[in-house]
Amino acid sequence: MAKKIGSQTLLLTSSPSIIGYAAVGAKKEKEGPLGGYFDFTSEDSSFGEKTWEKSETFMQKKVVELALEKCGVSDNEIDFLFAGDLLNQCISSAYASRERKIPFFGLYGACSTMSESLCLASMFVDAKLANRCLAVTSSHFCSAERQFRFPLEYGGQRTPTSQWTVTGAGACVVAPKAQAPYLRAVTVGTVEDLGITDINNMGAAMAPAAARTLCQYFQDTATRPEDYDLILTGDLGFVGSRLLERLMQSEGYPMANLHNDCGLMIFDRLKQDVHAGGSGCGCAASVLCSFILPQIACQRLKDVLFLATGALMSPTSTQQGESIPGIAHLLHISAFPHTKEEQA
Amino acid sequence: MTKQEYAQWTQEESPRSKGPVNIFKAFLSGGVVCTIGQLLLSLYERLGAGENAAIFASLSLVVLSAVLTGLNVYDNIAKHAGAGTLVPITGFANSMVSAAMEFKTEGYILGLGAKMFSIAGPVIVYGVSASVIYGIILYFIQ
Question: Would you call B6 and A156 a contact, using CB atoms and an 8 Å cutoff?
Answer without folding.
Answer: no
